Structure formats: C-alpha cells, structure tokens
Amino acid sequence: MARVVVVGGGNAGLCAALSARAEGAEVLLLDRGPADGSGSDSYFTGGLFRVAYDGLDQLEAIVGPLGMDPSTGIDAFAKYSEADFLEDWGRVTGYRCDAELAETVVGTSYDAITWLSGHKVPFLSGLVVDSAGRVRHTRPGWHGGFVEVSGAGPGLMAALLKAADNAGIRREHGVGVRSIERSAEGFRLVSRYAHGETVFHDADAVILASGGFQADPEWRTRALGPGWDLARVRASRYNTGRGIRIAQDLGAALYGNWSGCHAVAWSVGSRDAGDPKANHIFERESYPFGITVNVHGERFIDEASDFGAYTYARYGREVLRQDEQRAWQLFDAQCEEQLMDEYRTKNPEAARTRADTLEELAAKLAARGVDRDHLLRTVAEYNAAVDESVDFNPYVKDGRGTKGLRFDKSNWSRKLERGPFEAYEVTCGITFTFGGVRIGTDASVLDEDGRPIPGLFACGEMVGGLYYFNYASGTGLTSGAVLGRLAGRRAAEVVAHA
C-alpha cells in the first residue's frame, strides 16, 4: 500500500511527492497525462517563479554570478522584498486574496526556490543586458523579482520528474482518479487507466494537485459566464476540475473567485489544448508597446495601464468580450526591440500580417473582417494624441501617454508611423481558473466549518482564495512549490502517526 498518494503530476504535485518522500513516506503519484509531464499546466508555462530576495547575493546563490557592472543599472534590481511581493500580489487582486496563504507563500518563496535548486531545477536569472547596455527583465516591460527555468516549462518538468525518479517515487501515468472514499485505513481511491482497467489504491493521506476546471467548457461557462466556452485552453486538456469535485464530495469547502481566471491574449493560430510542441509559443504579451483593436477597428483597452506582469492575465477576458472574440495587436518598426521571442516565430500559425504602409496593412486586415476605414481613423487619432514631450522608457512606467481618447494609453505611447507594420491576430487563451477548495496554511483541506479534513491536502491551481480578478506573473509556480512542499510534509506526518 502507498501510504501517501498524490493526485496530479505537475509542479505542485511533484513538489508534494518529493517533500513527502524526503520525510520518509512511501509515495505513489497518479497522473492522467503522459509520463513526460506534458499533461500538466506546468509544462506549458514560461517557467517563471516570483521570489522575494534581500540582495543580489541571494539571487546569485540560485542562478550563479550575474557578472553585471553597476553601470548597467543592476542596482535597481538588487532587492525584491517580501513587502514588495505582498503589495504587488494584494494590489492586483484588489486585496481580496487570502492574506494568510499569500504571506505563507511569500515568506517561504526563497526557501522553496533554494530547495528546488537543490533538486537540480536549472534556474536562470530573469535579468539580461539589452543592446543599450542597460539591465532589464528578460521580458520587456515586466516587473517584480523572479527567476526562470532553463527550458521553460518542459525544462522544469524534466528536472522534477528526474528528481522524483531518483527519490524512488512510484509514478503511474494515464490514470484518472474517479472517486475517493473514506476507508478503515484512511482513503480508498478508485482509478481508471487509459486502457480501461479499474484499480483501487489505499492510502493514509491524499494530496490533491489536479488543477482547476478550465478544460471543461460547460463548467467554465457556468462559472465564468457566457462566451467562455469559446476561449482557447492554453495548456492541459486534463484539468477538468475532477479533483475539486472529489474534494467537495469529501466535505471540502469551496473558496475563492469562481468567476475569475487567468486569461491572456493568445494567437488565433494556436493548436488544440495539450499539444506539447506548442508550449507557450502562442503567447502575445508585448501589447503594452503597441495598440490593440477589435474587428471594428476600435481600441477597447488601455494597453499600458501597468507593467505587463500585472495586466497580461486579465486582458484575455477583454478580448473575449469583443465581437467574434478576436482582436489585433498593431506594432510598427520602433517596437521591434520590445517584442518577446514568441512574436518572432516563423511558424505559419503565428497569425501575423505584415505590410510596408498602414494603408496596405489596413487593406490586408480588411480581408480578415476588420473595418478598414475605422482602423485607419483609430490609428490617426491615436498618433495625434501621443504626448511626445515625455521620453519613452520601456523599463519604468514612463507616463508617456495619450490625451483625449476614449481609452487613453497610460504609458509607452509612440506614434505608429515607421514601416514595416505588423498585426498579430489574438483571441482569449484561458490558463487556469481561480475558484477551488479552501486550505489552511499547512495545505490541509478545510471543511465548511473551517476544520481540517484529516489526511486530505491540496496544492496548486485547485486551491481557491489565492487570486481574485487578476494575477501577478510567476506567483503560480511559486505557490505550487511552497504549498506542495507543505502538503507533502504534513501528509508524511499523518503517515508517521498512522
């Protein structure tokens, strides 16, 4: 009998399994996806972990020597305090996030990254020096303290799976847990394998780490509202909320922002959910440096209200609200240095339109259904409204905005006037949902009276209360690692006293 069973094999589940195993527990990990980890949302991430640190020496202990001269402006990134992390998290969620859980994640973030590094997760600095010799985040217009994994999501999963195998954790893939019942010995899990066999697993403690319900179009439409069945699922096709239902059947309290989700601007050329070759190549997150228009040729958002790290996860919702659930991000030649690598893919599915003049670009987009005349008028009005008295600076909120428009742009405004011009067609891509089960600061699943359900733990995207309305980049993987470690440790304690 496996004394601890972990349901879900992404970042959170693997961290839970490694933590429980380190405490001496026998661990079985059950996962619906393939053995390479590509069935998890973690596989499809950019591999960013937001982390609090008190000095560059702490950062270098994880990523190695930065080797940057002070003249690059590295001092501006010398610290990202716990207070800064908490303030950013609170601000983007309207201060409705569970304060105790957020404090637990933030206060343990550096320790968690150090622990992961000890398991050979290959971390890199999130900082680079640009062509002007100035240090910046690897993503122009990004903000906050983070490190990233070499190889992004696939690199993270490869490292964690190897660590799990080295630790002697038994993994079974292609198996979906259908239900969990109380038994005399703890829990009995009823599982169905891909080939049709039904198997029973007994455990003293269970850790649920099977994600949200974003891959279930009926549930997300019922929870998020009309039109959400049309959103593209960015990552795992296995995250249908089954773990949440199982926890609820065991008495778990539901918690969090059930009408909220992480949703981004996503290329209309994206493939089906869960294609491991796609990873995150269809992200379109450089919108703060251009303008975005709908099928009517109208702007409908302030593209630069904040750093992209704090707006990208809510702009997908704005695109979904537009007619035909699609929009176009427009850039001119001045924007080239600010475009992320995903824009430079030569894949024909990039849904990119290029032209030497605005008139030619508008004509090409008209063939895609865009109102040509209104588009040209929108660009002309935008260009005329740009305040050129303020210097452009992509590394700070520069206040270079527009004046007098229905949707004024707050920062990083430049006239679209230098060819060639490009348009990237986007729709809404949903990453994960915010509603889930309620847990305590030790990752114990709580019932409706706030009491821990003995032996039952949860971590990862199925935890509710962490995010409301919006999301700060990199907090998801960090939360998964922190709460996964806690869940594993506590589950092992249950086993020790069984």
Automatic annotation (TrEMBL):
Pfam families: FAD_binding_2. Its cofactor is FAD. Residues 4-477 form the FAD-dependent oxidoreductase 2 FAD-binding domain. Coiled coil: none annotated. Keywords: FAD, Flavoprotein, Oxidoreductase. NCBIfam families: PRK08274.1. This is FAD-dependent tricarballylate dehydrogenase TcuA. The lineage of its organism: Bacteria, Bacillati, Actinomycetota, Actinomycetes, Pseudonocardiales.
